[in-house]
Every structure is written in C-alpha cells, then in structure tokens.
Amino acid sequence: MPTAVTLRWLGRPTRGEPAELLRALAPLTARFEPALGPPRVHTASYLDTADWRLRRRGLELTHEGASGPGSLVLGAHAVKLTEPPAWPARIDGLPEGDLREAVAGAMSVRAIAPKVRSRTVWREIVLCDAEGAEAGRLRWAEATTLHPVRTPPVVRVTVHGKRRVARTLLESGEFEPADGSAYDDLLAACGLPEPRPTGITPGMPADAAVATALLGFADAISANVEGTLDDVDPEFLHELRVAVRRTRSLLKVAGDVLPGNLAARFAPRFKELGDLTTPTRDLDVYLLDFDALAAGLTVAGPAVLAPFGEFLRERRDTERKTLVRGLRAQRFTRLLESWRATLNGVVTTPTAHSTVDDLAANRLRRNAKRLVRHAKAITGDSPAEDVHTLRKRAKELRYALEVFGPLCEPGPHRTAVKELKRLQDVLGAFQDGEVQSTTLRAYAQEMLHSGLADAPVLLAMGELLAGFVRREREARDELTGALARFLSAFTLPVS
Fold first, then answer.
1. How far apart are the C-alpha atoms of 399 and 5, rounded to whole Å?
2. Are residues 178 and 108 located together in one domain of the fold?
3. What is the tens place of the pLDDT at every residue in 220-253?
4. Which residues form the CHAD domain (predicted)?
C-alpha cells in the first residue's frame, strides 16, 4: 500500500465536529493519540465547457477562493486573478501564460463556466504512537456541492504515513478505497455529466423508435437555445443547427413511419428553423477563421483587412438580431412544444407493426445504394450541383447510421462511419471553398458600393478569394481518389 492513500468514509458526515470525527476514527484511537488541527474551509468552482471538453481531456480546472478575485488552478499551474472572473469566459478571457496554453486546445472556441461549486470543510489530524512519535497524518475533508444542486457532504480521508494506519481503517468496515478524484465524487453526487438518452433499442416498434430519436434531437435543440441567445460561444448555435439537420434528415429517411403525416407537417417548419440560423452561423465561420486568413496575406499586413473584419462583425450583429427574434418568438416555442407532445404520443402509443430492426436494415440499404450510385456517377466533369447532391446523400446516410447505430455491430459500424467522414471531409472542403468564394465576391461588391473598401482592402480580399478558389479546386482534384477509396472500402454494417 503506498504511503498516501485516499479512502471514502461510509458513515454519516461529521460536519467537522471533533467529537463526531473522533468517533469515526475510533479504530485508530486505541493505538494512536490523535491531535486535531483547526477546521479550515476551501471553496472551489470546477470549470468546463458545455460539452465537457476539459474533462474529456483529463483536465481539472478550478476557480478557488470564497471572496475576492481568487485563483485559477490547473494541476501545478496556479494563477492569481486581479479581478473577479466573469463566467462564461472564452480562452481570450483567461490570463495569458502556461495555464491558458494548457487548456486552449481543449477549449477551442468554447466558453467555460462553473459546472460544480463546492465548499469543503477539512481538518488535519496527527496520529502519535505510545512513545509520542508521529505515526501518520490524516486529512479529513467533507465536500458539499452548492451548485447546480445542494448535496450531502462527500467525505474523503487522505492518509499519509505508515501503512497500518490506512489498513486499520479499511479493516474496520467503515471505510473503502476512493476511486477517482474529489471532482468525480462531486459530479456523481450531482448526477453529472447527465446520462445520455438511451435512444432506440432492438425490437422497438418502428414509429416509437423514430419518435424517440427525434425527441433526443429536440432536447439538443432546446439545450442550446439559451447559449445561442446569450451568445456564450459559437458552438451553441452550431450544435443547435446540427440537431435541426439531424431532425430534417431523419424525417426524410424514415419519417413516413410516423402516423398522421407528421413528417410532411413538420418538415417545412424545421427547414424554416434551419434557414433562420444559417446567416449567423456562416458569419461565425468567417470570423472564427478571420485572424488566420489575415495573417496569411502576402501582399499586405493583417491590418489591411480591418475594414472587412468590421463589416463582418456589423453584418453578424444584424443577422443575430433576426436570429434572436426568431428564437424568442412564440412560433418557435409552439413548434417545440407541439413537436414534443406529438412525439411523446407516438412513443407511448405506437401503432407500427414493423420493428426498428427491419426499418433500419431497409433504410440503410436504400440510402447506401443511392449514395453509391451517385458516387459512381461523379467524374471530373460533373457539375458542382452533382457534387453537392452527393455531399447531402453522404450526410443523410451518416446521420441514419448514427441513429440506428445501437442495432449494428460496433466494429463494422465504426468503420462505416469513419469511411463516410473521410468522404465528407473532401466534399465539405469543396462546398466550403465554393460557398466562401461566392460569399466573398458578394461582400466585396457590397463594400465597394457602400464606400467601405478602398483599393488595398479589395486587393487583400482578392487574395483571400484566390485562396478559397484554390482550396475548392484542390478538393475537387482530391475527390476522384477519395471516391475510389470510399467505394472500395465502404461496407454497410447491416445484413
């Protein structure tokens, strides 16, 4: 047993009271004389992005301190703040230095905010043997979460010193080894991260399965509305759009199994929602890439593009106002309410005689055949519209594979999704190059007519345009090889 062991107390929390604490340590008091240190209080907010990017990377970032600016702590990195932090915060809102560099890759464009706020009361306890020599030290810590919910204290005891001290506690039956960190315990006490929806399962009625998947997408839309409205970070809008796209795709692929012509009734409304979100997202993408684009100029310095950057930000402000009005409108609220109510009715009272297993095999085969047929028809001379159609078909099949994944063999399913993603990367690069070049031409024309761009700005925008066109052509050249690779490697993971 190592010299430092962390245990979990299985009894009732002591609240740091000396008498209660000594009763909990009764297995030790017959052999050692305990000396209790004063109670101390430690407060911490555990920070992460909305989608737990830091935790997925094994990073535990905290803001510590009950009053004043406090400190940011990440492992060995600790940074004292000069003013109280404002959450949520993007990477440029964190102090420059090693800590910021350590989390930048994981955060990317996302903002961090407290996931759990905790208050820990702890005491140090020194154990002495009969001769008065120190035999070990304990750190008795009782942590209570204050946010997002209040929970009973989680008690962890860290033992430093002789092995027999920890062994004695374990043998008493009142302690157990503590797996994971204090953060793990706090998250478990709060029920976080929230469990993923169970989704569809084999044997479900086909209509109930499709409705269940669509309810999951509706939850994803709702979960990202507040962050989109508050403009916390651009990924909230992106995730909202992905959920809308998945909804539209599943309605197209399998919506006909829903009763009452539901797909035909609701599909136009979700297209409308997708159209509402598109302009702001397109401008987000431009602005996220803007600094890199400006830094890559060869005919001028990045400062030359400043008027174009300002133009994009003003355009985004205008488009965002339209987006916010739409998401706050009763029309959007009623859409989600009626959509959920309708889908819940299908889940609780299914009418389909076929199972989701049959549906998945049928629709995956049908969409795969259609994709392969389109892929084989693409040549170097195919018009751009045909390439875009192929991209849509690939996306529809990938979304269908994600929905019906629980019914597929895991290995073949992962391989099929991987091959689709590789093809989509090339198709997406071609699409992005064409869209960005078309949009940039329109922006340049508008700025010219409005007197917002002089010759240096337009020349710099021309260099950007050349870069977009070059990427578009490179993706088109790469497409032939990508299609050949896909057609030879892709196998549908259903019998």
1. 46
2. yes
3. 999 999 999 999 999 999 999 999 999 999 999 9
4. 202-485
